[in-house]
Structures are given as structure tokens and as C-alpha cells.
Amino acid sequence: MPPFRLLVGLGNAGREYASTRHNAGFWWANAMALRLGVHFANEAKFSGGVAKAASDLRLLKPATYMNLSGRAVASLARFFDIAPEEILVAHDELDLLPGAIRLKQGGGHAGHNGLRDIQQQLGSAAFWRLRFGIGHPRDSEIPQQAVADYVLKPPRAEEWRALNDAIARAVEVWPLLAQGDIAQATMRLHTDPEAVRAANRNTASTATNTATNTAPSSKEPS
């Protein structure tokens, strides 16, 4: 695969959004900038904060709202002639528990407005995604809350710890990603901490018990 030339962290700009679940991509981008020893500077022509690292590598945090993230990504990619396959986008993922990370190339947007806009603006879904689990509201203390409300609230204390650990693990595998060793990086990223594995087991067990208890009886009514 070609080396990554653009690392994108998704989130909403503004102090009121800084600590919300939807900004997990921004947190990773900030950690990567610290790891690489670079600083973000506002670039109006790219609609976001941009940091230049060595070897033709740039980091981007779109300053648009999440729904318009593609504007910043596409404008920078076009200007520097960066192919979708050379872009890695970090974002929050509802379908993974806090602490879980998954790396993949291509695929749909699964309702994530930032991914949807990037896909539309690039005209391609071939970019890479680094998916940081934030959990789903159905598994939260307020399961009836809307997804939009859930992602725009801060994580609970234990979720913060799990997310911070996930971001640290993602930063640690950057040398593997930089040299194109996707297989090794994926193996390390997809090896969930024991707390995440236990939570997944509990979720699966609960789902099984619920299905068993609600299954229709095979007996005819008396």
C-alpha cells in the first residue's frame, strides 16, 4: 500500500464540543501531533488546522462542523495531490465499546455524517478509517436517548480511561502504519484489552438471555 500522507481527526471545533464523544478523532490527532513534535496552525484555505510533519505527511483537524468535514479533507487532498488510499481518518464509532479500536479501508459511512461528507467530497470510499469505540446509547445509563444527544455528551469517567488507553495504543502503532505494515498494526490494534473483551462477553450473554426469554413457545396454547 502507499504510505499515508494525510492523517485526519474528526470532531467539532469549539470549546463546547472539546470533551464530547464525537471528538474522539480530534483527541487522536492531538496525540499524534504531540508524538510527531508538530503543532496545528489554522489554514483558512483548507478549512481547518493543519500540521506538517516529515516525509510529506500532514495532519488535519477540520474546523467545519462534523457534517462538512469533507470540505477540508478534499481541499487539502486536491491541493497536495493526495489519493484517497493515502488518507487515514480517525473517528468515533458507536458500534464499538470504549477502548476498542478497528482499522479498515473503504466501506460505508454507517450514518456517520463526517464520513458521509468525506466520501461525497472525495468521490471515493477508498480512504482508511481508524475507528475509536464510544459505545452506543442503548447500552448506556439512558438507553432511550437519541444518538445525536449521546455523541455530543462527554464520556463517563471509566469511558474516558478506556478511550485514552485506546488513543495511546493507536499512537504506539504509528511506526508500523508509517512503514506500511498494516497486518501487524491491525493485529495489535484489534487485540482488545481484557476489560473490553469482558464487556463484549457480557453484552453477548445479555443478548442471548433476552432472546431466549422472549422466544415464542413451541407449545400450543391450552
Keywords:
single chain, 222 residues, alpha/beta, 7-stranded mixed β-sheet, 8 helices, disordered C terminus
Give an overview of the whole structure.
The chain is built from eight helices and seven strands. Helix 1 crosses helix 5 (157-172) and helix 2 runs parallel beside helix 3. It is an alpha/beta fold and 222 residues long. Helices cover 40% and strands 17% of the residues. A hairpin with a 4-residue loop joins strand 2 (41-43) and strand 3 (48-53). A seven-stranded mixed β-sheet has the order 2-3-4-1-5-7-6, with helices on both faces.
Topology:
Layout: E1 6-9, H1 24-36, E2 41-43, E3 48-53, E4 57-62, H2 69-79, E5 87-93, E6 101-105, H3 113-122, E7 128-133, H4 147-151, H5 157-172, H6 174-178, H7 182-189, H8 194-214
Distance between the termini: 65 Å
**Share of helix, binned:** 40-55%
Tell me the major beta sheet: 7 strands, mixed
> How many β-strand runs?
7
* Rounded radius of gyration (Å): 19 Å
- Strands of the widest sheet, in order across it, are 2-3-4-1-5-7-6
What does the average pLDDT come to?
90
Principal-axis shape: globular
Order of helices and strands: EHEEEHEEHEHHHHH
Strand percentage, roughly? 15-25%
Counting DSSP H or I runs of 4 or more residues, the number of helices is 8
Structural class: alpha/beta
Low-confidence region ranges: 214-222
